[in-house]
């Protein structure tokens, strides 16, 4: 682990302690929040990230008596919104709801306008997500092993769809090709909705679909789920194995939704925001809503989020490097 990553973990641990002054010299604010919060979502309205942001933001507003304004800033694979928060005043009033792409982008793009571990303060990991590997009913495979056998029998003939170049789905698809020794044609879609539509219509031979987009259909019988990324099975699909259980290691890193502040935010502000997000995430109605989206509710401390970022960043970078994926 490099020096900067160790320092970031140490700073996150300090945030969890709730000290009165930051090591970066920003004075704490005991009356926080004294005005509205801006919650930046680096993706369009209506998507999973937006839904999570509005769910948590509404509860924050209700409890704190201050408006939480969700500000959708899509563009450049989330980097536009991320950069807005990275360069915002570190006063606790500009908050980011980020996703896994934050730590995948540095391996995919030569130039990133920020450094995740230098420019952001971790607050709380709200929920974990997974990708489902699915096939339409016309494909005869009923297990991952059977699909691999089909692909090996017809190299370069079968396709896999992803919800975009450089997404987790793309990385998982290339990883499956490497791990299984199969040749699949990658078909990138512009988002999960058209991908799911084509899976339902049988226009693509297989796909990695994020669980929030596929959740409404997982028990419909309209396609088959052969495996799930991450470390846990889907509650609605207890018979579907994880990739590790199916004999393919390396698919363990989960997707996630997490809150960040600009680096240098006062420690008591970060600690208060983190504690409130943890409390909200564990409310029965919020926890159930996240579960209904196919997510695993978490609610973590800043240091727990920092550890996830520090652990998973090199894993994603290794997949990108080994698969020779470059987007610019």
From TrEMBL:
Instruction: Give the highest taxon in the source lineage.
Output: Bacteria
Q: Which Gene3D superfamilies match?
A: Bordetella uptake gene, domain 1, Periplasmic binding protein-like II
Among Pfam families, the record links this protein to:
TctC
Per the UniProt record, which residue ranges are transmembrane? none
Q: Which family does it belong to?
A: Belongs to the UPF0065 (bug) family.
Can you say what this protein is called? ABC transporter substrate-binding protein
The species this protein was found in: Cupriavidus malaysiensis
């Amino acid at each position: 682990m490099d020096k900067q990553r160790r320092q970031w973990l140490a700073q996150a641990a300090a945030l969890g302690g709730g000290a009165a002054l930051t090591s970066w010299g920003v004075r704490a604010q005991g009356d926080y929040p004294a005005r509205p919060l801006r919650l930046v979502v680096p993706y369009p309205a209506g998507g999973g990230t937006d839904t999570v942001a509005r769910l948590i933001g509404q509860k924050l507003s209700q409890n704190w008596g201050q408006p939480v304004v969700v500000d959708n800033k899509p563009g450049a694979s989330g980097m536009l919104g991320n950069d807005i928060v990275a360069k915002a005043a570190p006063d606790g009033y500009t908050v980011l709801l980020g996703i896994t792409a934050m730590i995948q982008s540095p391996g995919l793009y030569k130039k990133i306008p920020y450094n995740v571990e230098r420019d952001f303060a971790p607050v709380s990991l709200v929920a974990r997500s997974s990708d489902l590997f699915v096939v339409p009913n016309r494909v005869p495979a009923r297990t991952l092993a059977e699909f691999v056998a089909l692909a090996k029998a017809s190299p370069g003939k079968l396709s896999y769809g992803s919800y975009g170049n450089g997404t987790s789905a793309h990385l998982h698809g290339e990883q499956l090709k490497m791990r299984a020794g199969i040749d699949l044609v990658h078909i990138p879609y512009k988002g999960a909705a058209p991908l799911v539509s084509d899976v339902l219509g049988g226009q693509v031979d297989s796909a990695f679909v994020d669980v929030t987009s596929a959740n409404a259909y997982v028990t419909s019988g309209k396609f088959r789920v052969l495996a799930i990324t991450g470390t846990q099975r889907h509650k609605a699909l207890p018979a579907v194995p994880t990739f590790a259980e199916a004999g393919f290691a390396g698919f363990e890193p989960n997707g996630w939704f997490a809150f960040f502040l600009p680096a240098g935010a006062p420690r008591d502000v970060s600690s208060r925001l983190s504690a409130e997000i943890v409390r909200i995430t564990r409310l029965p109605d919020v926890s159930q809503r996240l579960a209904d989206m196919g997510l695993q509710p978490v609610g973590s401390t800043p240091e727990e989020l920092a550890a996830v970022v520090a652990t998973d960043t090199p894993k994603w970078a290794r997949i990108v490097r080994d698969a020779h994926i470059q987007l610019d």
